[in-house]
Amino acid sequence: MLQYRTVPVTPFQQNCSILWCDETREAAVLDPGGDVPRILAAIEELDVAPRLILLTHAHIDHAGGAGRLARELALPIVGPHEGDKFWIDGLVQQAAMFGFPQAEPFMPVRWLKDGDTVAVGRTTLAVRHCPGHTPGHVVFHNAEAKRAFVGDVLFAGSIGRTDFPGGDHQTLIDSIVQRLWPMGEDTVFVPGHGPESTFGDERRHNPYLRGT
To answer: Where do the Metallo-beta-lactamase domain residues begin and end (predicted)?
Structure first.
């Protein structure tokens, strides 16, 4: 069964998640946006064995620490979708623009596309391409645990911004309705910022999504 712990990082309090298989203790680090020492301390405390880094998208608060973490632990970076390559190419500029520590450049060893799967130990994450916040945004879903890691697509009571380059409001709404809602109303999602919620609660109460 998939287990996870959320570790807020960066001044933006971005939800970095450490995911692991409770049988093998093999782990993935999802969206290490920064504060790498804090992430390393959590890995040590959990006594898990990281095998890869996963990215939902390539904004600085989600990807800013990926290069350093990959170098220090000799881990491959997987994701996001290739539509976010321009954000990765501009990561150093993003760091300067938002006052983040200098980011180490990187390139994923594997781009993800809709319908792909990623293994974490003996557990499997299904990949859904959910553009709108960024063109290459992906979401990771584990049906067995009824958990989805949705980055900045959806929040408790809100949705992702669409005013950055490559963002589009209607595309984001379509991603939520077509890709997230079919995962089930009882699925708990971990957003990129803020508290967890369920797709059912958001479908009923999120002011941006009523009627969807």
So the answer is: 13-193
Sequence-distant (6+) residues with CB within 8 A of 41 are none
pLDDT band at 209 (very low <50, low <70, confident <90, very high): very high
Residue 13 lies in a domain: yes
What's the rounded Cα separation, in Å, for the pair 187 and 170? 23
**pLDDT by residue (tens digit) across 29-50?**
999 999 999 999 999 999 999 9
DSSP line for 66-116: HHHHHHHHT--EE---GGGHHHHHTHHHHHHHHTPPPPPP---SB---TT-
Task: Read off the pTM.
Answer: 0.98
The answer to whether 14 and 31 are in contact (CB under 8 A) is yes
Residue 158 lies in a domain: yes
Number of domain units in the chain: 1
CA distances, 188 to each of 3, 68, 201 (Å): 13, 30, 10
Q: Could you tell me if residue 211 is inside a domain?
A: no
Domain region containing 40: 2-205
In degrees rounded to 5, what are phi and psi of residue 129? -80, 120
Task: List pLDDT tens digits, range 143-164.
Answer: 999 999 999 999 999 999 999 9
Chain mean position to CA 77: 12
CATH at 159: 3.60.15.10
Residue 16 located in a structural domain: yes
Q: Which residues pair with 16 in a beta bridge?
A: 7
